[in-house]
Amino acid sequence: xxxxxxxxxxxxxxxxxxxxxxxxxxxxxxxxxxxxxxxxxxxxxxxxxxxxxxxxxxxxxxxxxxxxxxxxxxxxxxxxxxxxxxxxxxxxxxxxxxxxxxxxxxxxxxxxxxxxxxxxxxxxxxxxxxxxxxxxxxxxxxxxxxxxxxxxxxxxxxxxxxxxxxxxxxxxxxxxxxxxxxxxxxxxxxxxxxxxxxxxxxxxxxxxxxxxxxxxxxxxxxxxxxxxxxxxxxxxxxxxxxxxxxxxxxxxxxxxxxxxxxxxxxxxxxxxxxxxxxxxxxxxxxxxxxxxxxxxxx
Length: 298
Ligand code: XIL
Hints:
With 298 residues, this protein is of the alpha/beta class. Helices cover 39% and strands 17% of the residues. (3S,4R)-3-hydroxy-2-oxopiperidin-4-yl beta-D-xylopyranoside binds next to loops. Residues 1-297 form the GH10 domain. This is Beta-xylanase.
């Protein structure tokens, strides 16, 4: 293929990008998105603060702009994200207990229902595990509603949109470490008990290098019977960014249940990681060496 999406497609994968409504009138930006990617995800527009700014008053305007663009262009859409400790609306931030649990389930149900049939994979829960060596959950208002909040969110998402793949998504789970093993144990438990989970998203926000056990870590999750996806890829520009991107593609292609890759932005100037130049296109929209190595590895 001659584009990332086309080439990934020939390998039975998708290749997506995070996009934002605020740039949808930037011709250079949209020209790249139109041409290169066969999947998109909203960088912020489907998060809890965006979709439910006031309790039980939902706003899908910006999320719909992204979904309708994608449908019009025949692109797939990832959903990000139904439940997260961050970017919660103000009204939710200080809630607790049964009221918060009920608000969470209502949120998951209403948002997943609105987008039913249009999302190929939902990040149902984002970043619920703690950094460091505990292997346990991150403390948050959601976690304090009870350890079963994650499975409750997944069950509500399945009921609302039975056709979407339901993912758990996190960072620093890209290698074999206590945090990724904590997630691994949760996924194994969910599969054993019939909690609906279909995929794990590996954010893959990398420094200048890729963990040596990246592929084997993806494989151990796939061996639990879930798909794996690389969901927020960006790699700090160092001496060998092109090689690092190639390694990521090779890791995904090396795991049959790795179904796709999403980069977290389009041009370096669009990245949330200021100064890292971690993406595939430079600020002018030109293809970087990392673009070429990614395309060639697909
Ligand atoms: C980031 C966005 O890129 C920024 O625009 C926003 O200000 C903060 O969130 N992990 C995630 C993403 O799951 O939602 C985050 O996106 C990046 C880290």
